Amino acid sequence: MTFPTQCLAPQEAGIPPADGPTTARITVDDPAPQVGDTVTVTYQVLATPALNPLGGELPAGVLTPTGRIVLAGAQSGEVTVVGAKRNDPVPAGAPLPAVTMTGTFTVTAPGEITLAPGGYTLHTSHLLDLGTTCTAAGPSATPVSERLTATELPTANLRSVFLGAAYGRPGAKVKVTAAGFPGRGRDGGRAGGRRRDRRPGDRHRRRTGHGPGGAAGHGQGHHCGDRLRGRGLVGAPGSGPAAYTVIDAVDATTPPPPPIPPPTVTRKVTATVEPGALGMSQTGEDISLGAVPYGDGGAAPGRIGTVTVTDARGGPAGWSLIGKVTDFTGPGGIRIPGASLSWTPSCMAAAGSKSPCTPGSAGVVGPDGAVLASTPDAPLVGGTFTVDAAVTLQVPAYTPPGAYTAVLTLTLS
C-alpha cells in the first residue's frame, strides 16, 4: 500500500518539508474476533520521504516511531501505535529507515471493521529532541489496508423451572416456578417467574417410572416448563427438566427419599482493565508576546497556551513537564538571551483524577529549563490535568525594532 504524504521536519533542523509516497502495511493478529476481544494491530512503514533532521549522521537506536490507525465501518475511532528504538545509523540528508509500530483496541460492535493508515511521527533523541511528522496529502489519500469481521458473543439460555417439592404421593399439589421467560403469554399467564400448582397425575407431567403408570413403586416425573412459556412464545428456547419422584399410596410406609438438591453451575467471571499511556496536547500553535516600544524596552507579556496532560498508565510513577527556551533571534542576528524569559505556571487536576497537580515555581525558563508542572509518585496515580503559564520577556532598552523568535520545548517524562 502506497499513499502520498508530506513530512514536516522540526523547525530546529532548518530543512524544507519532504513530499513523497509512504509505503506501508497494516496487519492484525485476529481477522475474525468476537465482540469484547482485544485485537493487536501492527503498522509497518516500509519507506518514507522523511529525511534525517540532523546535520550529521544519526546514530543507531535513537529513533522512536509513533502513529495512528483509523477505524471505520462497524466501529470507528483511532488506534495509537508505538515502536521501539531499533534503527540503523542514517547518513546526513538520507531518508529515515523503515519502522514497525504496534497497538491494541477492543472490539465493541459486530460487523466489518476497516483499518487505514493515519499520520506518523519519527522522533529522534540524539543531541536534540526532534520530531518529524508525516501526514497524508488529503483526507481520502489513505486507502483501506486491512479488514476484519467481528461477531456477537453467543447468548446463553437462562430459562429454568423450579419445583416446590422433589417428591410426593399421587394427588399432591406441586408449586412450579419459572424464571428467565420474557414477556406475557397470550393465555393471560405471566411467563417470567410464573407459578402454577400441578398434580403429579396431570397431563402436563410425563411419567417415566420404573414400572407401568399407576403401579406400585416409584415413578420419575419431569415438568419441562414448555407450558410456562405461554402460547405467545412458541419457538423460543425452553428450560431444562425439573425432576419429581412420585410415591404411590400402597407404598406409604416407605420413608420418603431425601430431598434432591437443585443442580448448580459456577463460572469464574474475569474483567480486565488495560493500562494506557502518558501523553499531552496543546491548544494553538505559535506563541505571540506583546509589543514593547523602541528605546524604552520592558516586559513583553503572553501565555504559552493550555497544555492537557493525560496519565492513563495506572502505575505508581508520577510525571514532570519541563520547559526550555532558546535565545531570541532578531534582525541581523541580534539576540535576546533565553534567560530573559520568565513564567508563572498554573496547573489543575480534573475531577476524579487520582493525583494532585503541582505547578512549577515562578521564575526564569532559559536554555537550562524549568519545571512547568508535576505530579508525585503514589501507589496508584493518573488523571487529566490542565497546565498553563503566563510568560514575560524582558526586552532591553534600545533593542533594534523587528520580530525576535525563539523555540520553547516542553518535555513530558
Description of the molecule:
The chain has 413 residues and is an all-beta fold. It folds into three domains: 2-150, Immunoglobulin-like (Sandwich), CATH 2.60.40; 160-251, no CATH class; 278-412, no CATH class. 0% of the residues lie in helices and 42% in strands. Strands 1, 2, 3, 4, 5, 6, 7, 8 and 9 form a nine-stranded antiparallel beta sheet that branches. It is elongated and about 115 Å long.
Low-pLDDT windows of residues: 184-234
**Major sheet size, sense and barrel closure:** 9 strands, antiparallel
Estimate the mean pLDDT confidence.
82
Strand content: 35-45%
Level-1 CATH class name of the largest domain: Mainly Beta
Organism: Streptomyces caledonius
Protein name: Beta-xylosidase
Draw up the topology in text.
Elements (H helix, E strand, L loop, with lengths): L1 E7 L9 E11 L9 E10 L15 E11 L3 E6 L16 E8 L4 E14 L5 E7 L9 E5 L9 E4 L3 E2 L5 E6 L15 E4 L7 E2 L10 E6 L18 E6 L30 E5 L15 E6 L3 E5 L7 E7 L2 E2 L5 E2 L4 E9 L8 E2 L3 E2 L5 E6 L7 E13 L12 E5 L1
Organism: Streptomyces caledonius
Protein name: Beta-xylosidase
Q: Could you give a short description of this structure?
A:
This protein has strands spanning 2-8, 18-28, 38-47, 63-73, 77-82, 99-106, 111-124, 130-136, 146-150, 160-163, 167-168, 174-179, 195-198, 206-207, 218-223, 242-247, 278-282, 298-303, 307-311, 319-325, 328-329, 335-336, 341-349, 358-359, 363-364, 370-375, 383-395, 408-412.
